[in-house]
């Protein structure tokens, strides 16, 4: 069965700091990878996704992620965070023939002014 | 498009009561899903449906039932509410898997408390 591990459960950063959130998955086949964000009191929104092609994926709001197949990783990055990035971030994975997403437990990010 | 809509937004139930969480989507997606989100646990799949009349269990189906009579609607039924069902429930939908469009779109959630 697939599983998704997010290494950082709680992260606190100052504005303008750089962000990297780790995500590893356990599945040997072809996968689709996602990062979702959940702002306080809101529903999940897609930040970015990887299906195939360039392993460096750019998403909304300046976020990007790099798929490293050999490391089974899909880490999320942002060069300079803003207070408005305070949210919970979820990594998720599904195979192209899978029906549902397997989510990591999430990383809570707090950006302080 | 409204996307994925859910009602109600909040609900408090007493132990043993029953209720139905409503979910609708207007994107003509074949696939629909119900997840529950517990603090620090991510999202867990309860049930999913690949089309009208077809449903299947996910990871945590006990205590829940679903039906899918139309493409648009996918209600989730709690028959005998228990405190362990206190959670936030999210409905989602997507195009069929196997294409490049199995990105899931989520509704705003229903926060349920069972006392």
Most strands sheet of chain B: 7 strands, mixed
Helix run count of chain B: 0
Number of E-type strands of chain A:
12
* Beta strand % of chain A: over 45%
What is the number of E strands of chain B?
11
Helix % of chain A is: under 10%
Given the C-alpha coordinates, what overall shape of chain B results?
globular
Radius of gyration of chain A: 13 Å
SSE string of chain B, helices as H and strands as E: EEEEEEEEEEE
For the largest interface, the chains and their residue counts are: A-B, 25 and 25 residues
Straight-line distance between termini of chain B: 36 Å
The structural class of chain A is mainly beta
Question: Any idea what the radius of gyration of chain B is?
Answer: 13 Å
Low-confidence stretches of chain B: none
* Sequence of secondary-structure elements of chain A: EEEEEEEEEEEE
The overall pLDDT of chain B, averaged over residues, is 91
Enumerate how many helices of chain A there are, as a single number. 0
Secondary-structure class of chain B: mainly beta
Shape of chain A: globular
N-to-C CA distance of chain A: 41 Å
Structural summary, described in words:
The complex is a heterodimer of chains A (113) and B (115). Chain A has 113 residues and is mainly β. Chain A is built from no helices and twelve strands. In chain A, the strands form three sheets. In chain A, strands 2, 5, 6, 10, 11 and 12 form a six-stranded mixed sheet that branches. In chain A, strand 7 (56-58) and strand 8 (64-68) form a beta hairpin. The radius of gyration of chain A is 13 Å and the shape is globular. Chain A starts with a strand and ends with a strand. With 115 residues, chain B is mainly beta. In chain B, the strands form two sheets. In chain B, strands 2, 4, 5, 6, 9, 10 and 11 form a seven-stranded mixed sheet that branches. In chain B, strand 4 (31-37) and strand 5 (43-51) form a beta hairpin. The N and C termini of chain B lie far apart (36 Å). The interface between A and B is medium-sized, with 25 and 25 residues.
């Amino acid at each position: 069965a697939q599983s998704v591990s997010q290494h950082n459960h709680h992260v606190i950063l100052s504005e303008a700091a750089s962000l990297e959130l780790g995500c590893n998955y356990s599945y040997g086949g072809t996968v689709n990878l996602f990062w979702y964000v959940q702002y306080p009191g809101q529903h999940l929104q897609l930040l970015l996704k990887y299906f195939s092609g360039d392993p460096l994926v750019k998403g909304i709001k300046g976020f990007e992620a790099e798929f490293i197949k050999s490391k089974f990783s899909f880490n999320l990055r942002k060069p300079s965070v803003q207070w408005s990035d305070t949210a919970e971030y979820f990594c998720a994975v599904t195979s192209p023939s899978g029906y549902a997403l397997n989510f990591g437990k999430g990383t809570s990010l707090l950006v302080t002014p | 498009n409204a996307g994925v809509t859910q009602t109600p937004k909040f609900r408090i139930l007493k132990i043993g009561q029953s209720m139905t969480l409503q979910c609708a989507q207007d994107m003509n997606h074949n696939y629909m899903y119900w997840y529950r989100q517990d603090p620090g646990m991510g999202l867990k799949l309860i049930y999913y449906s690949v089309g009208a009349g077809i449903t299947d269990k996910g990871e945590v189906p006990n205590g829940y039932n679903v039906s899918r009579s139309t493409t648009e609607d996918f209600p989730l039924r709690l028959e005998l509410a228990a405190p362990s069902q206190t959670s936030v429930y999210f409905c989602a939908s997507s195009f069929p898997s196997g294409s490049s469009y199995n990105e899931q779109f989520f509704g705003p959630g229903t926060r349920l408390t069972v006392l």
